[in-house]
Model the fold of this input.
Amino acid sequence: MSFVIMTRPDRAAVWKRVITAGLPEETVEIWPDVADPEAVEFLAAWTMPDDLITLYPNLKVLFSVGAGVDQLDLSRVPAGVQVVRMIEPGLTEGMVSYTRYAVTTIHRGMLRYIAQQRTATWKAWPYPPASEVTVGVMGLGELGLPVAQDLLGAGYACRGWARSRREVDGIETFAGEGELDAFLSGTAILICLLPLTPATAGILSASLFDRLPEGAGLVHCGRGGQLVTADLIAALDRGRIGAAVIDVTEPEPLPPESALWSHPNVLITPHIASMTQAETSARSLVDNIARYRSGRAMRGAIDLTVGY
Ligand code: NDP
Ligand code: OXD
Done:
């Protein structure tokens, strides 16, 4: 029985080494060098080959290389195949450092200073203390919760919104559609860390922006399909959104003609908020395979009925 890895060669080499060392009884193969397709039980990939079912008829688990699974066509996953997203400390660390940077950029008005530098302008602007800035995190999962806790530690007032009720020390929490208005109305800087599902597609739209306080900031690290780009540009132009740090777009790469590129109040990064780190993610895979082999639940197993 074998574990097939489809990822960039440097990460694949590390995964093969760490998994083979941790679980010597498992056969690990790097795609496309697969000796016996019928022996494949585990596949780790970012996207799924179209002919997955016929290629690997005995597949048991499809591991996403990343935290998201929306890039996989879940409707094609054969019944009985479990889909598991990536939960690993390297991804969390990267997201925490990115969001701390993005929130600081908005809070301290750094986009304005970048523009001032271009015209050799020496001019200081006042800013409120962090304790007077409320950061609202949409999605309190593996990434959103540590992000909110980090910002709390940095002195910000923090709140979070999730599908189900969460109790978190020091963080005001809101649940479901019914509490979205209350969550948004007190959020000065909004961070989106939701998975892309039918329920979250297009959620960052004019109607949501209008429920934020005037001049609110936006940090978008979820998925491009959650953002209605034209609505964001309109909200920026009328000052409803004061500044935005955008890491994910639809499509990716963001086309050169997009108005987001040149907007003075926007910072664009090319989907780098966080990245699956080879060594730490390999250890997560070892743990999950061991769990599977001993009949325990794997960490990050997707509920296909809700899509995350
Ligand atoms: P999790 O599944 O651990 O957490 C998802 C959170 O979103 C949960 O709190 C969940 O609520 C909440 N949620 C889901 N659907 C809804 C909804 N309809 N309404 C309200 N809340 C909802 O995911 P992760 O934290 O691991 O990752 C989140 C996303 O971050 C990924 O799916 C991916 O899209 C993105 N990402 C982006 C990266 C980048 O570099 N830009 C890197 C890695 C991830 P509940 O707690 O009730 O289940
Ligand atoms: C992920 C990503 O989902 O990098 O892990 O976007």
Remarks:
- The chain has a mean pLDDT of 97.
